[in-house]
Amino acid sequence: MAIDWAGLGRFLAILAASILGGWLWSRLGLPLGWLMGAAIVTGGLAMSGIRVTIPKTPHRAGLILIGSSVGLTLSPDVAGRMLGWAPLMVFAAFLGIALACLFAPIYARLGRITPATAYFSLLPGGVIEMARIGEDNGADPTTIAAIHALRVGLVVGVLPLVLFAFVPLSTAVPTAGSDGTPLALLAAFLVGALGGVVGDRLGLPAAWLLGAVLSVGLAASSGLIEGGIPAELLAAAQVIVGMALGARFDRERMSSIPRAIVAGIPSILLIMTAMAGAASLAALATGQSLSSLVLAFSIGGMAEMVLTAKSLGQDALTVAAFQTVRAVIVNGLAGPIWRRLARSSSGPGGRGR
Are the C-beta atoms of 337 and 93 separated by less than 8 Å? Predict the structure, then answer.
């Protein structure tokens, strides 16, 4: 197969610019500096009309590194604690669905889009899954994909900065921690990659990240692997994830639905606020970390929220667990719930199309 040298050269140039942007942003001492800097640079290029394509291999490698870093913190007692969170995880997932149903009629009117498109655009599910399921139910996949990119961008751009004010600076700056030996690091990455392959074959949400969390977590809790992922490698993973986020803001997609995008911003911010409020109540009731639960309840992407948790020194494993349960429930029930709503006069807009 012939190598696309022009495409490779364009990617390397964008990668270099994204690394510089990440470095500059991180120098400000803000959370997710490498990710946000890369996302801003890549998003700016995409909005200017430059085609940005992120090869699968580096993107998957970045997700594996993130998942492995979370999996290395798993132990039997932590796994037991995760089971205790199950009812709250399910509640958070259904709350996200309920808020999407609540705001969909308003968003449909303001954005002049169909109720189905509004509903699938506001659901906190995977962008690919929501676009596909939405299209199967008569919604516009282009609008759905654009609004989901906007949703993740807003959450990643706003939430870490808000939480930063409530997190002591000493825990907000990520450190390398007790990094393992190069051999242990290689073993963790290979185990994580194997878990990613299996997760992808099984159709798990965020398969490469979640597969790495589960496979490395199993090995770590069994005492087969120990240590941590160096901060430099996690910074590289942030750059790749940030580039993938920025690439979603391509000019053709965004310029085709300006009214829907403008109307989507307040809807997303209101849902974010409602989820944060619910997380605050949960923190008061359980005595757990407010920042961790706000990230766990948040409607951002799994990789971005896990990285945010690590950046702020919060419980990344709990955040990953909440985000996984939400993704499974939302992706699985989005279609059936919409069809039931569309048949009911009380559904979003009272119409399914």
Answer: no
Judged on CB neighbours under 10 Å (0-12, 13-18, 19+), 329 is: buried
What distance in Å separates the CA atoms of residue 295 and residue 288, rounded to the nearest whole number?
12
Please report which confidence band the pLDDT of residue 139 belongs to, taking 50, 70 and 90 as the band edges: very high
> How far apart are alpha carbons 45 and 173 in whole angstroms?
29
Compute the mean pLDDT over every residue in the chain, rounded to the nearest whole number: 87
Alpha carbons 309 and 313: distance in angstroms, whole number: 6
Q: Domain limits of the chain? A: 56-350
CA atoms within 13 A on the CB side of 240: 20
Distance in angstroms (rounded) separating the CA atoms of residues 35 and 19: 9
Q: What is the pLDDT of residues 265-307, one digit of tens each?
A: 999 999 999 999 999 999 999 888 899 999 999 998 888 899 8
Angle CA(322)–CA(326)–CA(330) in degrees, nearest 5? 180
Q: What's the rounded mean pLDDT across residues 36-64?
A: 92
* 302 and 205 Cβ atoms separated by less than 8 Å: yes
295 in Cβ contact with 308 (< 8 Å): yes
Tokens 């430099």 locate to 232
Six token digits for residue 115: 């109720």
* Among 349, 351, 342, residue whose Cα is nearest residue 105: 349
Quick one: pLDDT band at residue 348, thresholds 50, 70, 90? low
Token readout for 265 is 């911003």
DSSP, residue by residue, 252-267: HHHHT-HHHHHHHHHH
Give the up-direction half-sphere exposure of residue 18: CA atoms within 13 A in the CB hemisphere.
32
Got the DSSP string for 182-207?
HHHHHHHHHHHHHHHHHHHHHT-TTH
- State the Cα angle at 215 between 214 and 221, rounded to 5°: 85
Backbone angles phi, psi at 7, to 5 degrees: -65, -40
DSSP 167: S
Query: What six digits make up the tokens of 180?
Result: 């393992």
Residue 170 has pLDDT above 50, yes or no: no
Report residue 30's pLDDT band, with 50, 70 and 90 as the boundaries. Answer: confident
